[in-house]
Write a sequence for this structure.
């Protein structure tokens, strides 16, 4: 059956046969770099469009509908506009940090792509500490946001950055703990192992109640970590105008904007990998025929389908809920989510030790 | 590293800093300028700076005749233009001793209540937007659009209706007016329940508003708050009940008051007012009497020498119109007592000690319209 694994494997073999191993590695790096940037551009265009269409659908509007069929080229036009716009640096800002911040943010969301398995055998780097890598790198993005807020020399930016700092540091904890739930069940931090362990069923269904609790907490924490409504306090349009990126314009703003959407994709991809089986097709017990049909759907479709479903859920949140206040946000994390996560991880450890999961 | 050019500086000797909210800010709903003193997230002081949209309507009115000046008041509280015009027309009628036909009175009251619903609809959308939910704004505009369409049919304009003239209303109601109002009320009865489902019951929304921005009854009175803002604090101040004008004394309606005085009470207050307005409309819509819609008046209106005052209940509170006449064709002096101005003065008192996010929510529940404050 058609599989992306065959293509990647044959390219790999061909490169190593024709070239010196070091050169071949370099060429592979270049190919991966181009592919990641292409994916970024694709995600930026598709997710922004999706957001606008989802919001318009929820708000009795049509959304963009002028450029191209159903307005599909609206985001292209927006991107062109942002590229040709002057990248202004206001007076009295810390120039180095101000210009470095968006680049740092985008680099972090690029690096975090590495252990994600897009399809069977289609992965950049199957590192043995995949989950740890993801949670470690994702917490770096806060440095970029704090830098942007501090260097802008704007009080709104400063407030936004401080909010964002408090928020991401807090929610990192319960996101990490809910990811750990699956690690405990699987017994491995490696992404490919985690997906392989879900061959007989997704952890969301196999892991009993703790997996469901962990999934809910993960979705909440993921929404908070990506600074999305109802946790968009760092931007908080009605309070801080645009929060930490108030002073940014042109492509520098576009990098923040792109990083936000790529981060949504990444957290949803992680969620889909951990809880919904990544590229694993949906199988039901011993329905041989059904399972066989499901296997015919390419693994990449399964992966992107699950990821985009989670992205849709997160967008749905944004256009439904009001925003929390900063103290309520921290209360939610430290008084509710964190104790529940800790209890949950104990529960799942007992279940895993006793072998009660399916 | 500290540099001389750094703008972010605290007030010397404290951890507090001054931050300007507005005049261009998404949640001031206009060109209101608030100078906040904040300590981190905590608001220590709010100092409203007004006047950015001052158009000296009061002074302009002094050179306009008694027929003309009414139209300039549409631009004061542009969300409730009809009630503004109503107050002015009533003041002139009072001075001239003009008897307004019953039909005109019915039409005016109906239009007042429709205006109130339209204004509260917009407020409902904007309070939700201030709290971070964007979708309710579009839902509210769907209902508001129906009212605007009714207004357009009958008055010819959607926002600045200019429908009131001294002696009645400018034109008779559109033949389909009664039917479209009934359709609207039927539609809105189901939609207002949807509002409750989407926003009122939301746990995040409730926790944002409950216990925030408390205004005690005494404070509400001493700041001169009126309208839903004061009634949410337990002050019974509905002009329609206490100083009934037109046919309000014949209508069976309740004056809604809450005692909590917090943002949530102000929120519930306005939702309840929308329901009450629908009750009033339903009582009147089938009973509009036949007759003239406009009393016969002289071509040139000249108010006798003296002072005249009239007041109406606008969606935001009590609007007073005070005319001093020297007996000429134009007023000697006009003063408008606008509800937004007094309500805004209570903002500092309500916000101190709360977070920045609360400031925005409190400002939303005050339902400020900046041209109404500045005039």
């Amino acid at each position: 059956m058609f599989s992306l694994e065959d293509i990647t494997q044959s390219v790999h073999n061909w490169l190593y046969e024709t070239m010196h191993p070091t050169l071949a590695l370099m060429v592979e790096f270049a190919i991966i770099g181009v592919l990641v940037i292409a994916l970024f551009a694709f995600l930026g265009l598709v997710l922004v469009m999706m957001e606008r269409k989802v919001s318009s659908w929820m708000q009795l509007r049509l959304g963009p509908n002028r450029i191209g069929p159903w307005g599909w080229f609206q985001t292209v036009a927006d991107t062109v506009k942002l590229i040709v716009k002057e990248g202004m640096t206001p007076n009295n800002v810390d120039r180095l940090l101000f210009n470095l911040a968006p680049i740092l943010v985008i680099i972090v969301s690029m690096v975090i792509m590495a252990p994600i398995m897009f399809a069977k055998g289609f992965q950049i780097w199957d590192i043995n500490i995949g989950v740890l890598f993801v949670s470690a790198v994702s917490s770096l993005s806060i440095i970029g946001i704090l830098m942007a807020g501090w260097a802008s020399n704007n009080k709104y930016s400063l407030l936004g950055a401080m909010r964002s700092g408090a928020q991401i540091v807090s929610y990192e904890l319960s996101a990490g703990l809910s990811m750990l739930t699956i690690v405990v069940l699987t017994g491995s931090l490696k992404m490919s192992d985690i997906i392989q362990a879900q061959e007989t069923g997704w952890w969301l269904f196999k892991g009993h109640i703790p997996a469901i609790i962990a999934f809910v907490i993960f979705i909440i924490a993921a929404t908070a970590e990506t600074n999305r409504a109802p946790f968009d306090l760092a931007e908080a349009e009605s309070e801080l105008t645009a929060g930490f990126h108030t002073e940014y314009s042109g492509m520098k703003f576009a990098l923040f904007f792109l990083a936000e959407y790529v981060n949504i994709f990444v957290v949803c991809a992680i969620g889909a990998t951990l809880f919904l089986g990544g590229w694993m097709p949906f199988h039901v017990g011993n329905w041989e025929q059904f399972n066989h049909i499901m296997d015919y759907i390419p693994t990449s479709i399964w992966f992107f389908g699950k990821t985009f479903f989670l992205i849709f859920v997160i967008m749905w949140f944004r256009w439904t809920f009001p925003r929390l206040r900063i103290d309520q946000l921290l209360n939610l994390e430290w008084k509710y989510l964190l104790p529940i996560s800790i209890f949950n991880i104990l529960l799942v450890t007992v279940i895993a030790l006793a072998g009660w999961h399916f | 590293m500290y540099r001389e050019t750094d703008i972010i500086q605290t007030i010397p000797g404290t951890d507090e800093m001054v931050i300007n909210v507005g005049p261009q800010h998404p949640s001031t709903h206009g060109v209101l300028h608030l100078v906040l003193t904040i300590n981190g997230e905590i608001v220590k002081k709010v100092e409203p700076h007004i006047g950015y949209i001052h158009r000296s309507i009061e002074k302009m009115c002094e050179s306009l005749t008694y027929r003309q000046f009414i139209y300039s008041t549409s631009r004061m509280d542009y969300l409730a233009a009809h009630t503004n015009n109503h107050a002015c027309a009533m003041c002139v009628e009072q001075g001239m001793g003009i008897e307004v036909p019953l039909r005109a009175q019915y039409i005016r009251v109906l239009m007042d209540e429709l205006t109130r619903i339209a204004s509260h609809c917009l407020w409902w959308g904007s309070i939700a937007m201030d709290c971070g939910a964007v979708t309710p704004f579009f839902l509210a505009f769907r209902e508001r659009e129906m009212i605007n369409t009714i207004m357009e049919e009958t008055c010819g304009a959607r926002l600045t209706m200019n429908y009131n003239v001294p002696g009645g209303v400018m034109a008779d109601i559109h033949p389909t007016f009664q039917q479209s109002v009934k359709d609207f009320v039927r539609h809105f009865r189901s939609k207002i329940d949807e509002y409750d489902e989407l926003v009122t019951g939301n746990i995040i929304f409730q926790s944002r508003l409950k216990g925030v921005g408390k205004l005690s009854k005494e404070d509400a009175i001493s700041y001169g708050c009126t309208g839903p803002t004061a009634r949410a604090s337990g002050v019974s101040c509905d002009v329609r009940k206490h100083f009934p004008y037109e046919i309000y004394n014949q209508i069976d309606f309740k004056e809604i008051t809450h005692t909590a005085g917090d943002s949530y009470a102000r929120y519930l207050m306005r939702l309840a007012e929308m329901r009450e307005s629908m009750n009033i409309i339903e009582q009147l819509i089938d009973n509009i009497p036949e007759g003239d819609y406009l009393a016969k008046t002289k071509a040139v209106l000249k108010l006798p020498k003296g002072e005249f005052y009239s007041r109406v209940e606008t969606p935001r509170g009590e609007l007073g119109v005070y005319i001093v006449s020297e007996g000429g064709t134009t007023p000697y002096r006009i003063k408008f007592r606008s509800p937004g101005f007094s309500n805004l003065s209570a903002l500092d008192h309500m916000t101190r000690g709360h977070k920045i996010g609360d400031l925005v929510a409190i400002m939303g529940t005050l339902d400020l319209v900046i041209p109404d404050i500045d005039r």
